[in-house]
């Protein structure tokens, strides 16, 4: 991929950080891919965001409030 950069969403390896105490597959899996990509020598632009904008569509997005406005319910 000469002249190209891969945009990579990566997260910390929770299993390694916690000494195996916590199993968070969506973090650890991304950390493993990050290591493979770096070992392959690919140029990357990393992003360490566990929550991406498309997640705000649908059920996780703003909902109609009692007053008719849009927003997230407060507990």
Count of helical stretches = 2
The level of helicity is 25-40%
Oligomer: single chain
Distance between the termini: 48 Å
Strand order of the largest sheet: 1-2
Range of strand content: 15-25%
Computed structural class: alpha+beta
Question: Which key phrases capture this entry?
Answer:
flat, two-stranded parallel sheet, 4 strands, alpha+beta, 75 residues, single chain
How would you describe this protein?
By secondary structure, the chain is an alpha+beta fold. The chain has 2 helices and 4 strands. The chain is flat, with a radius of gyration of 18 Å. The mean pLDDT is 82.
Please specify the SSE layout and strand pairing.
Blueprint: E1 6-9, H1 14-17, H2 25-39, E2 44-47, E3 63-64, E4 70-71
Parallel strand pairs: 1-2
Antiparallel strand pairs: 3-4
Quick gist of this model?
With 75 residues, this protein is of the alpha+beta class. It has two helices and four strands. It is flat, with a radius of gyration of 18 Å.
């Amino acid at each position: 991929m000469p002249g190209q950069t891969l945009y990579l969403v990566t997260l910390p390896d929770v299993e390694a950080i916690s000494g195996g105490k916590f199993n968070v597959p969506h973090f650890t899996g991304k950390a493993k891919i990050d290591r493979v990509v770096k070992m392959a020598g690919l140029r990357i632009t990393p992003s360490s965001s566990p929550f991406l904008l498309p997640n705000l569509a649908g059920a996780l997005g703003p909902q109609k409030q009692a007053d008719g406005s849009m927003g997230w319910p407060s507990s």
